[in-house]
Amino acid sequence: MAETTPSKGSVRTGEERGGPLIITEDERLLDDLLRLCAAAGALPEVAHGLPARRADWEAPPLVIVGGDCAPRLLGCARRAGVILTGGDADDPDLWRQAVALGAERVLALPDGERWLADRIADAVEGVGPPALTVGVIGGCGGAGASTLAGALAVTAARTGRRTLLVDGDPLGGGLDVLLGGEKEKGLRWPAFAESRGRVACGALAESLPRLHALRVLSWDRGGDVIIPPPAMRAVMAAARRRGGVVVVDLPRRVDEAAAEALAQVDMGLLLIPTELRAVAAAQRVVSGVQKVLGDLRVVARGTPGRHGHGLPPDEIARLMELPLAGEVAWEASLVADLARGVPPGAQVRGPLARFCAGFWGRVAESGSEGGGAGAAGPPGVRPGSGPGPEPEPGGGQGAGAGSRPGAVSWPVAEPMRSRAVGQDGGWS
User: Fold this and answer.
1) How far apart are CA 2 and CA 242, in angstroms?
2) Spatial CA neighbour of 325 closest among 283, 267, 402, 262
3) Rounded to an integer, what distance in angstroms lies between the CA atom of residue 290 and that of residue 298?
4) To pair with 160 at 20 to 30 A between CA atoms, which of 64, 153, 325, 364?
5) Residue 219 and residue 193: Cα distance in Å, rounded?
6) Helix axes of 27-39 and 113-125: crossing angle, nearest 10 degrees
């Protein structure tokens, strides 16, 4: 039996989830594994054989065994999360040892470094099903996409869902301002502009402002309004790994950064005012969005002074050749509420809040909550595969929605209608 010791220089604060257990006497391999653990933000324990205490073997979220020590572990209790590393991943002896240990994966370094670093990070973060990710896009200027995105996030948080609201539109004015939190401490997009590869999901969430029981990634008031595509990819992937719900406010023009966000969206909601000119503008938006997102649905938004006179929501969906997710009536008091610091969707009896509550209710009924399209099995299921982009979402039944491997199928929602009569109000 071997004693386990913390890796050199590591100090545990008691707040971290336990790091992996490394079992090897190969100093070169150990250096490589310690480097990968550091990259993943993990504090490992190191042993030269089976730990003396059963708990030291069973407790770590991951055990990485060097081929040099594998024979010493034969006959030990089986457990999940064992990785066997060696100089040659095709060595038959190594595979026999892996079978005897019940290892989930055999890999060689450096070829498997990227996969192993992600696997270590997943184990330490305790990652579960990916977040259900909903993107909101305005069909035309002033449609109110930011307001709808904010209301969806506020409603999700109010009902107990872990929620992250992402401002993907650098020219939208800032979702923190919309929620009355522009002075709240926390990081904004410019702090993540250099992000590449993997961002720790827990650290991401904790660094962001907390507003109305949800986390918000917005823009600061500076002049830099560019999200590099790798940064968008890294941050969105981290947000999804955190689980719960992610709502993304997206720009109408699909640039490279917006395409990265759309690639990780499970369902898109295209908000269109009930007037012909808005429909014409939305048709141009759709042509860009559907190149990336398969499941796109229409939300019809009522306009002032047109109660009963605008285009019917069903007709808008028909013209757009998209499913109808629902209708939101004009809400006269919305502008005044926002001016008083009341976040969108907070008036639970208002048309906007009723639509959002109905939307999340349908999500729960469909069984898609808590793990959207792109949910994958345990890492390492596919031999020789490395981590790649999240599987593309699918399941849409509108134009351009194809059948994609591994996609979650969403039922076409019956229109969720919400009507109100009032004076002129406004959306932002």
Assistant:
1) 35
2) 267
3) 13
4) 325
5) 11
6) 60
**What does each of the 428 residues of the chain score in pLDDT, given as a tens digit?**
455 555 443 333 333 457 899 999 999 999 999 999 987 778 999 998 888 888 889 999 999 999 999 999 988 889 999 999 988 888 888 999 999 999 999 999 988 998 898 888 888 777 678 899 999 999 999 899 999 999 999 999 998 999 999 999 888 878 888 888 888 899 998 899 888 877 878 888 889 999 999 999 998 877 777 889 999 999 999 899 888 999 999 999 999 999 999 999 999 999 999 999 999 999 999 999 999 998 999 999 988 765 545 899 999 999 999 999 999 988 877 877 777 778 888 888 889 999 999 999 998 887 766 554 433 333 232 233 333 333 333 333 333 333 332 333 344 444 444 333 233 334 44
Paired strand residues for 267: 134
| Helix/strand/coil for 55 | helix
Contacts of 41 (CB under 8 A, 6+ apart): 121, 124, 200, 203
> Rounded to an integer, what distance in angstroms lies between the CA atom of residue 319 and that of residue 310?
14
**CA 50 to chain CA mean position, Å:** 37
Contact between 282 and 152 under an 8 Å Cβ cutoff? The reply is no
Whether residue 244 contacts residue 163, with contact meaning beta carbons closer than 8 Å, is answered with yes
End-to-end CA distance of the chain: 66
d(CA 396, CA 266): 9
Beta-carbon contacts of residue 145 (< 8 Å; ≥ 6 apart): 136, 137, 138, 169, 249, 250, 271
